[in-house]
Amino acid sequence: MYSDKVMDHFRNPRNVGEIVDPDGVGQVGNPKCGDIMKIYIKVENDIIRDIRFKTFGCASAIASSSMATEMVKGKPLREAWDLSNRAVAAALDGLPPVKMHCSLLAEEAIHQAINDYRERMGLEPWKEGPGHFAELEEHGH
Ligand code: FES
């Protein structure tokens, strides 16, 4: 059911933990399954210098968090914002269709952490694109 990459990131998740003095924090929960993901970021010159996550959730959610943090680490905030859950799933060599919504948790938590940072800096939060919400509607649990 799961690719080798999903199993690898589930068994050895990268960037697990928390940042003591973060510049931004994002936390999202999936109301249907009750899974929760928290992401901490450290930002320097608009670049994500460090990122950690804690996920209380299924294998797909943990593997997606791990892969997503690897993909945005060292990247400019705008590029990190544009990372879609589909890109994360593709980097994991795919997720079973019923598990795609689990990867959305990582995308949302990164968005929240970025907007938390922007608000702390006195900047306007960025808005989700319309495609994002279409996907949220379609992924009933
Ligand atoms: S995030 Fe809840 S089942 Fe995967």
Task: Please provide a written account of the structure.
This protein is an alpha+beta fold. It has one domain (4-138): Sufe protein. Chain: A, CATH 3.90.1010.10. 45% of the residues lie in helices and 18% in strands. It is built from 6 helices and 3 strands, in the order H-E-E-E-H-H-H-H-H. It has helices at 4-11, 59-72, 77-81, 85-91, 100-120, 130-138; strands at residues 24-29, 36-44, 47-56. It has a 3-stranded antiparallel β-sheet. Helix 1 (4-11) crosses helix 2 and helix 4 packs across helix 5. The protein starts with a helix and ends with a helix. The model has no long low-confidence stretch (mean pLDDT 92). The structure holds FE2/S2 (inorganic) cluster. FE2/S2 (inorganic) cluster binds at residues 30, 33, 35, 57-58, 60-61, 102, 105.
Span of the ends, CA to CA: 18 Å
Mean pLDDT reading: 92
- What form results from the Cα inertia axes? globular
* Integer-rounded radius of gyration: 14 Å
Looking at the overall shape, the CATH architecture is Alpha-Beta Complex
Helix content: 40-55%
| Largest sheet entry | 3 strands, antiparallel
Please indicate the count of domains.
Answer: 1
The sequence of SSEs as H and E is HEEEHHHHH
Q: Beta-strand percentage?
A: 15-25%
Q: What is the number of helices?
A: 6
Assign the CATH class: Alpha Beta
Number of strands: 3
Report low-confidence residues grouped into runs of 5 or more. none
Q: Hetero groups bound?
A: FE2/S2 (inorganic) cluster
The secondary-structure class comes to alpha+beta
